[in-house]
Amino acid sequence: MILQKYPKVRDWIRIYTDRIELRTGKVDIGQRISTALMRIAIEELDVPVELIRFAEVRTGSSPDEGITAGSRSVSQSGHAMRAAAATLRSHVLDLASSWFGTDPTQLELSNGIVSHRRSNRKLAITELAGKIDSELEVDASTRSASRNLELPWIEPVGLNEMITGEYMFVQDLDVPGMLHARVVRPPRHQARLESIDADIESQLESENIRIIRDGSFLAVAGGCEWRVAASAMRLFDSCRWDHGKDYEAEDIFELLMSKPASSHLVVDGVPNEEKIPSELTLPDFERLYERPYQLHGSLAPSAALAEWNGQRLTVTTHSQGIYPLRESIAESLNLPASAVEVVHAPGSGCYGHNGADDAAFEAALISILLPKTPILLKWTRRDEHRFEPYSPAMAVKVAANLEEGGSVSAYSAEAFSDTHSTRPVPGPNQQGPSRFLASGLRSDPVLPRPPRPNMGEHAGIHRNLDPSYQFGTKRLVKNLVFDLPMRTSAMRCLGGAANDFARECFVDEVAVATGRDPLGFRRQHLAGDQRSIAVIDRLSRLAASAEIRGSGRGRGFAFSRYKNSSARVGIMVDLFVDDFAAVKLASANIVVDAGRAVDPDGIASQLEGGFMQAASWALYEEVYWNGEEILSSDWDTYPVIRFDNVPEINSVILDIPDAPSLGVGEAAPGPALAAIVNAICNATGIRMRRLPITPAAIREQAISE
Hints:
Elements: H1 2-5, E1 13-15, E2 20-22, H2 33-45, E3 52-54, H3 73-100, E4 107-110, E5 113-116, E6 122-124, H4 159-164, E7 179-183, E8 192-196, H5 198-206, E9 210-214, E10 217-222, H6 225-238, E11 239-242, H7 252-258, E12 261-267, E13 270-272, E14 285-291, E15 303-308, E16 313-317, H8 322-332, E17 340-344, H9 356-369, E18 375-378, H10 381-387, E19 394-402, E20 408-417, H11 431-434, E21 473-481, H12 496-513, H13 518-524, H14 530-544, E22 553-561, E23 568-577, E24 583-593, H15 600-619, E25 648-653, H16 669-684, H17 695-704
Parallel strand pairs: 2-3, 7-18, 16-17, 20-21, 24-25
Antiparallel strand pairs: 1-2, 4-5, 5-6, 7-10, 8-11, 9-10, 12-13, 12-21, 14-19, 15-16, 15-18, 19-20, 22-23, 23-24
Helix pairs in contact: 2-3, 12-16, 13-14, 15-16
C-alpha cells in the first residue's frame, strides 16, 4: 500500500502561506488525474480552487507510485490524497483550537477559512503554514469529510492553456544552448550499421552537425532543427547496412497457433502451474476471435530533453513511469540512480508504452556523449509507426456447453498472445536496459530478453479472461507465444480489450442462437451482483426508449467489469452499414458504475475517449508488413478513425457516493469493441470475428457465408 511507503501528510500535501501544494507520483497523460485529485483535496479541506497548485512530478521529490497504468490512479493515489487531506483537516482544526483557545468542535473549516461559531474570529488555513507538524503521519482511519459538497465546475488542469495554444508539451521545450537531435534509424529492427560514407560525414561536420555513433546507434545534433532533420536523411542515405534476417511474413494468427508457448491455467484471474484441463468435448458453441498488431497512434511522435552536466543527468520525458525509467537509464549508463533525475512533462501521446521511454534513453545517451549541452530529441512519425512497441496480436478461442434453459454450464476461454509488458523496469540480468531499443544497437549491446509469463492477477494476456458472469465450470488458459515477428508491449487495456471482445461477442452469439434477449441473457448470468445488474437494467431502459429501424441499421450490446474489480460498464451501439459495407456509427450509450464519482466530467471523458479509440481499433487499425519492412509508416498506410465517423455519445454515470472510487480509464474499450461488432451482425446478419472490420472484410465474409 502506497501509504506505508509514504506515510507522512507532507508526502502528499503541503500548506504554504500563498498556496496548498498537492504532490503525486501519478502523471497526467490526459486522464485528468490532476483534476480528480484537486477535487478530492477541495472536498476534504474545503478550500477555494485558486489556492491549489500541483508540484512537478519528478524523481526524488514526488512519491514513487510506479507506472501510471491499469486504471489505478484514483483508487490508489486518490485514496492516499483523501486520507492525507482528512488528516490535515483534523490537524488544522486542532491547531486553530489552540489559536482560539477553544474546543475543535466549536470550529468549522469552509472555503479555506477556520471560523469560530460563537464569535467573529476567523483564521485562513494558509496562516497556519508554519505551524503544521512536518512529521504528521496520515491516519487512514480519519473520518472523511463526506459532505458531498456541490462543488462548482472546476476547470480541468491545463485545459485553458491547451485551447489557447499556451500549453507546453515536451516537444515544445526550448532552453538556452539547446541542440536538436534525430536518430538515424536502421532500415528495420534487425539491421546493423556496417559503414558511413566518410565524405558525407566530413560535409556534415563542416556544417556544424554533430554525429554521434555508438555501434549501430547513430544520431545527429545541431542548433537548427530543420537542418538536423535534413542531415539525418542525408546520413541515412550514406550508410551501408547489414539488413539481418527478414521478418516472418506469414499470417500472424497462424503463427500464434503454431509457435512454442508457455501455457498456464488461470483461476480467479491468477495464472498458476496446475495441470491444464482438457478442452470441452463436443461443446455446444466454439468460436475464435482475433485482433491484429495495432499501434498506439500517438498524436505527436515521442520526444525527450536531456542534459548531462558531468555529475548529474536530468531527463524530461512524457514517460508513464518516471522511477522505473530512472533506474533503467542509470543502469544502462553505469550511473548511480542518485545521479539521474527524471522529470515528467506532458506529451501529446497515448495510454500505454509507446516510444516515450526509448526517446528518453536516446536523449540521455546523446547528452552523455555531448556533455553540458541540453539535447532535445524528437522521433519522426515514421520512427513512431515503425519502431514503437506494438500492441500484441491476440487470438482468443472460446467454447461453452449449455444447460436446458440456456444457462452456461461450462465455459472455456484460451488466449494466445505475445507479451504485453516490455516497459523498462529494473530487474535481473539487465532487464531494464534490455528493453530500450537503442541498447541492442550499441557497440556493447544489451539484447532483448525472452519474455516471461506475467503471473499477476488480471495482468497482461489474461486480463479479463476470467468472466464476471456466473458460468458454472470454467477453463481459462493463457498462452504466452514466443518467437513472434514484432516488438510488443502495453497498450490501453492490455489483453483485456481482446478478451472482452471475444467473450462479449461469444455471449451475443449464444444468446441470439438460443433465441434469448442479449441483455436478458447477460442479466441471468450476473445473479448476485446487483450493481452489475443495475448497469444492465439502465442499458435496457435506454434501449427501450430509442427504437432502431431501417435496412442496414443495427444495435449491439456489451458489458464488462474491468479486471473484475474496477468499473462496471455497459454499452449500446447503434450504427448503419451501407451498400458498400462501410460502417457508420450513429450513437453510443455508455452506462458506468465507478463507485464514488470524484470527477464526473473526467469519467465521461474517459468513457467517450475509450469508446472512440476502440471504434478505431474495431473498424480501421492494423499493422502491415512484408519480409523486408514494416509497411505501416504514416496515417495513410495506417488509417485511424476520422471526424466523419464520430457518433453521438451519451454517458450515464451511476454515482455510488458511499462506495470506493473505481478505475474507469480502461474500462470502456473492451465492451466498446464487442458492442460495435455485435451491432454490425445485427445490421447485416454477418458475424465478424477478426478485427479490423473493414468494408472489404465484410464483403469477403458475406461471400464465404
